[in-house]
Write a structure and sequence with these properties.
alpha/beta, 8 helices, three-stranded parallel β-sheet, globular, TIM Barrel, 11 strands, single chain
């Protein structure tokens, strides 16, 4: 049971039917769930820790995961059918996590975007380096009246030495989505330090799990928060809920 006066609290105590906006549950589309059976297992485990649904976001990444609205929606419908057949009551819709590259710019031009909701679009960058034309890509997104939601900004280690680059991204219209596990040591100390700095500076707008497999879920099950950060995480969960599942 949640106790804000305790030294630590489990993050799972805060979920209470949370509909996740970043995960890789749709089967067979990327490096997440490989098939329907595994997807069902992951969903059942997420439900046990308080998740009520998901906007599933398989990667769209040229040469690796060439997903389209058709492939994504086909996988979603197949998983919805399996949930119904197994009498599992879990809200499921679909979008994508778009790698910001030339292929993404082509998708934008063709109008083939699956937003999270309304005009919100989940985007990511390479973990090795930002795209050379990052400013142009963000301009293209906003000029189409989409709102870029940058996935896991805390994990781009090449930006950790110059936080002004994060400020610039915010000023250009990017919203920031926190990966829950970044608040633990799962991604390393530099990522964790950056995540807590963003919380303290009020840089985050939304929160998501980025669940790919059971290791992520098991880590979430055991993850604890220091009491002083509980209100901030509650606020992010609430804002995410209000924006994407009103």
């Amino acid at each position: 049971m949640l106790n804000l006066f305790s030294k630590k609290t489990f993050i799972a105590d805060l979920f209470d039917g949370f509909v996740d906006i970043h995960n890789h549950l749709l089967p067979g589309l990327d490096d997440g769930a490989p098939d329907v059976d595994i997807a069902i297992q992951l969903i059942q485990e997420l439900m046990q820790i308080g998740f009520g649904g998901s906007i599933s976001t398989p990667h769209t990444m040229n040469e690796y995961y060439a997903n389209t609205p058709l492939t994504i929606n086909t996988a979603k419908e197949g998983l919805l059918k399996a949930l119904q057949e197994n009498d599992i009551h879990f809200k499921l819709s679909a979008s994508s996590e778009y790698m910001m590259d030339g292929h993404f710019q082509d998708i934008l031009k063709k109008g083939e975007i699956l937003p999270l909701r309304d005009r919100y679009v989940l985007v990511e960058m390479s973990y090795l380096q930002p795209p050379i034309n990052l400013d142009e890509i963000i301009f293209d997104i906003t000029s189409k009246e989409y709102i870029p939601v940058l996935a896991h900004p805390e994990r781009y280690n090449y930006l950790h030495q110059d936080f002004s680059k994060y400020t610039d991204l915010k000023q250009r219209g990017c919203l920031f989505q926190l990966n829950m596990l970044a608040l633990s040591d799962y991604y390393g100390s530099s990522t964790k330090k950056t995540a807590y700095k963003f919380i303290e500076d009020g840089y985050y707008d939304f929160i998501g799990s980025d669940v790919h497999h059971m290791r992520h879920i098991n880590s979430l099950k055991n993850m604890k928060l220091t009491a002083k950060y509980v209100p901030a995480i509650e606020g992010l969960i609430s804002k995410t809920r209000e924006t994407f599942n009103p």
